[in-house]
UniProtKB/TrEMBL annotation:
<dbReference type="GO" id="GO:0003677">
    <property type="term" value="F:DNA binding"/>
</dbReference>
<dbReference type="GO" id="GO:0006352">
    <property type="term" value="P:DNA-templated transcription initiation"/>
</dbReference>
<keyword id="KW-0805">Transcription regulation</keyword>
<dbReference type="InterPro" id="IPR013325">
    <property type="entry name" value="RNA_pol_sigma_r2"/>
</dbReference>
<feature type="domain" description="DUF6596">
    <location>
        <begin position="178"/>
        <end position="278"/>
    </location>
</feature>
<feature type="domain" description="RNA polymerase sigma factor 70 region 4 type 2">
    <location>
        <begin position="109"/>
        <end position="160"/>
    </location>
</feature>
<dbReference type="Pfam" id="PF04542">
    <property type="entry name" value="Sigma70_r2"/>
</dbReference>
<dbReference type="InterPro" id="IPR046531">
    <property type="entry name" value="DUF6596"/>
</dbReference>
<dbReference type="InterPro" id="IPR011990">
    <property type="entry name" value="TPR-like_helical_dom_sf"/>
</dbReference>
<comment type="similarity">
    <text>Belongs to the sigma-70 factor family. ECF subfamily.</text>
</comment>
<dbReference type="GO" id="GO:0016987">
    <property type="term" value="F:sigma factor activity"/>
</dbReference>
<dbReference type="Pfam" id="PF20239">
    <property type="entry name" value="DUF6596"/>
</dbReference>
<feature type="domain" description="RNA polymerase sigma-70 region 2">
    <location>
        <begin position="18"/>
        <end position="78"/>
    </location>
</feature>
<dbReference type="InterPro" id="IPR007627">
    <property type="entry name" value="RNA_pol_sigma70_r2"/>
</dbReference>
<dbReference type="InterPro" id="IPR036388">
    <property type="entry name" value="WH-like_DNA-bd_sf"/>
</dbReference>
<dbReference type="InterPro" id="IPR013324">
    <property type="entry name" value="RNA_pol_sigma_r3/r4-like"/>
</dbReference>
<protein>
    <submittedName>
        <fullName>RNA polymerase ECF-subfamily sigma factor</fullName>
    </submittedName>
</protein>
Length: 411
């Protein structure tokens, strides 16, 4: 990749969400904002190699995208009325209440996560407009065709326009009721960065995890007493702290038990632990994100894998199952069962989840590991083969392939 190509890629990573958000604020139309942003990057790909990198790529993209948006508005029928409506509604923003956080990207995510939209539409729209994922990446995450995902996002944007959903952070009275849907989306955006699924992308997308953490910090500043906001922030920080140890120099995903714990970010771990302790001190029953954060706090408290308090982790998973009785939670709980009661007991738990998780790569990877520990090599190899077939991340595929090949068996 040339220096200019790298600069365009870096600008897309750093500027996409800010650019779409700023254009939405100015023109009040998500379609216009997304198309103009995409056109600006297309011009950059064409112009920057010939003209050289601009001194301020973000400002250059903003100016170019704004011109593209104005050109589109002028081309459309009744353009004067549309343009005037956009100017009246969006150029003169109403004054913000005292203490409000004026952040275009936060406005954008609350718009994308409006309760008038279905949950899948909220996630897809946020991944596209805020996180900047491509349509194939989003479609793969939802296990649907790219055309179907494109239609879903188009319908969501049309509904926002038709319902005149406001582009703003909700009022203090409305904020608590709106925040749950936003947390769900931010968690999914973080997870896409934590283990990216896009072809040709790195195994970890630091831009997505950083943006999810930044937006969650903003919401935490708005709602410092909300336990689930605090829990999600703690969960993200404790997960992000392990980022540099999660992928080997050869590009292979490193399992938690094999990570160099000296490479973990101690500042992020300390902050995450502090947030978990703050919530425990309130005595209020925790929600899902708080329990997940507590599980990660136990993991990151152990100096060595052998020091892990698996009894505490299993107790926390038992609590989580009551809050979220999903098969994926049951699968993760089985890992703790294996450490306490042995792989045979855990395998029986995992096998009961087959009907619900047969298409999920982690189910087959977990089962393969348990079968390996039970010295059932051929069955383990078959499970690894299926996990490799389903995995969407190059680093994860590399790790699964190595473990399978260490079995030393052939089909």
């Amino acid at each position: 990749m040339s220096d200019v190509e790298a600069a365009v890629t870096r600008a897309h990573r750093d500027e996409w969400a800010r650019l779409v958000a700023a254009l939405t604020r100015r023109f009040g139309d998500l379609d216009v904002a997304e198309e103009a942003a995409a056109e600006a990057f297309a011009v950059a790909v064409e112009r920057w190699p010939a003209d050289g990198l601009p001194p301020n790529p973000g400002a250059w993209l903003t100016t170019t995208a704004s011109r593209k948006a104005i050109d589109r508005i002028r081309r459309e029928s009744k353009r004067d009325d549309k343009h005037q409506a956009a100017v009246v509604e969006y150029d003169d923003d109403p004054p913000q209440p005292p203490g409000a956080i004026d952040d275009d990207r936060l406005r954008l995510i609350f718009t994308c996560c409006h309760p008038a939209l279905g949950v899948d539409a909220r996630v897809a729209l946020t991944l596209r407009l805020v996180a900047g994922l491509t349509m194939p990446e989003i479609a793969r995450g939802f296990l649907v065709a790219e055309s179907a995902m494109g239609q879903r996002i188009t319908r969501a944007k049309a509904k926002i326009k038709a319902a005149r959903i406001p582009y703003r952070v909700p009022s203090a009275e409305d904020l608590p009721a709106r925040v749950d849907g936003v947390l769900t989306v931010l968690f999914l955006v973080f997870n896409e960065g934590y283990l990216a699924t896009g072809p040709g992308t790195g195994p970890v997308r630091r831009d997505l995890t950083a943006e999810a953490i930044r937006l969650t910090r903003l919401i935490h500043a708005l709602l410092p007493e909300d336990g689930e906001v605090t829990g999600l922030l703690a969960l993200m920080l404790l997960t992000e702290a392990r980022r540099d140890a999660r992928v080997s120099p050869d590009g292979e995903l490193v399992a938690l038990g094999e990570q160099d714990r000296g490479a973990w970010d101690t500042a992020l771990i300390a902050e995450g632990h502090r947030l978990v302790r703050e919530r425990l001190a309130t005595g209020v029953a925790p929600g899902r994100y708080q329990v997940l954060a507590a599980i990660n706090a136990v993991h990151t408290s152990a100096r060595d894998m052998r020091d892990t308090d698996w009894s505490q982790i299993l107790a926390l998973y038992d609590q989580l199952v009551r809050l979220d009785p999903s098969p994926i939670v049951a699968l993760n709980r089985a890992v703790a069962v294996a450490e306490l009661d042995g792989p045979e007991v855990a395998l029986a738990v995992v096998d009961r989840l087959e009907a619900e998780l047969a298409g999920y790569h982690a189910y087959h990877a977990t089962r393969a590991d348990l079968l390996r520990r039970l010295h059932r090599g051929r069955e383990s190899r078959a499970a690894y083969d299926r996990a490799i077939e389903l995995a969407g991340n190059t680093a994860e595929t590399a790790a699964l392939t190595r473990r399978r090949d260490q079995l030393g068996l052939r089909p």
